[in-house]
Amino acid sequence: MVAVEALAVGLNAGYKVTKNERKQRQNRHKGRLSKRNKIVRELVREVTGMAPYERRAMELLRISKDKKALKFLKKRIGSHVRAKRKRDEVQAILTNMRKHHK
To answer: What domain of life does the UniProt record list for this protein's source (predicted)?
Structure first.
């Protein structure tokens, strides 16, 4: 509960009121990953590896052809935003591989 200062206007003028904090609506949770799902997805990724188009994108990123990789992913996935997200994901995998290799 958050206390609000005495209001100067409105129906509750002069009274100190506490704001009623409501729980977040269920539909606001859609798309957010739970801990369990995150672990399961990581495990599946580890077991199955990368798809062929992801491996090609990784090769393009390795030789720093970022724009080419984005265009390639957009062609394969179909959406610009999803392609950018996939490019960042593959880039993160590459940087992790570089860190662990040293």
So the answer is: Eukaryota
Give the tens place of pLDDT for each residue, 5-56.
Answer: 666 777 767 767 788 899 989 888 888 899 999 999 999 999 999 999 999 9
Angle (CA) 31-38-80 rounded to 5° is 50
Q: How many CB atoms lie within 10 A of CB 86?
A: 20
| CATH code matching the domain that covers 2-101, chosen among 1.10.10.10, 3.40.50.1580, 3.30.70.920, 1.10.10.1760 | 1.10.10.1760
Domains of the chain, residue spans? 2-101
